[in-house]
Amino acid sequence: MDTMTLWHLTGWEFAALALAALLVGFSKTAVSGANTISLAVFAAVLPARASTGVLLPLLIAGDVLAVLTYRRHAHWPTLWRLFPAVAAGVVVGTLFLMRADDGIVRTSIGVTLLLMAALTLWRRRTAERAAQPGAVTTRAGRVKARSYGVLGGFTTMVANAGGPVMSMYLLSAGFRKLGFLGTSAFFFLIVNVSKVPFSVGLGLIDGPSLLLDAALVLFVLPGALLGKWAVDRIDQRLFEQLVIAATVLGALHLLLR
Hints:
The protein is mainly alpha-helical. It is about 80% helix and about 0% strand. The two termini are about 25 Å apart.
């Protein structure tokens, strides 16, 4: 794999990756979608394709910490409806990665995220939000879950950018803060672990990338602890605004790179 080892990084480059790893932990226990900033930093310091392989084990470490923190708040009916569609999206994303160049990938994901953020804001202004996340039981809810599931699987495979997609889905389905975090924690732990064989097969994860991960994973834990401290001090409205803002910023970054 065309990557940089730990020994080839300058001090400033390693510091940037360490800060991005800390943000991974924070995003998993506080503002989901904020790790799009981490994605941007990794892609700036490392080769674009190689950066996804280095970032994936760090995301899994953050997912484990999030599950340990919010495991009691997961909404499993939503998860079971999402997983088959997500699996299809991961397969499509793998095939897409084999053929598409970085520019096409970034543009397609960036446009999609902006459209989803706009749709979520429009729905919030024109419809009454559900008190509980039970909308997935209706036919329209099932269609929406499958659509977001395929898109989430696709974006998480090609760029580790599934966070904003699922954030928009969970917000549009009416999830409150803790239910949002608990459901997304289990979702991404299972999905990211399932991506490992694909990433290894594509040459995105190898010995040098894992060595770099071993050094950076130490920064994920304090980020997760900081997120747990912060989430108790963020009200629901601000939480949702931060999630949407992180999604828009991540999309703009992909489009403007």
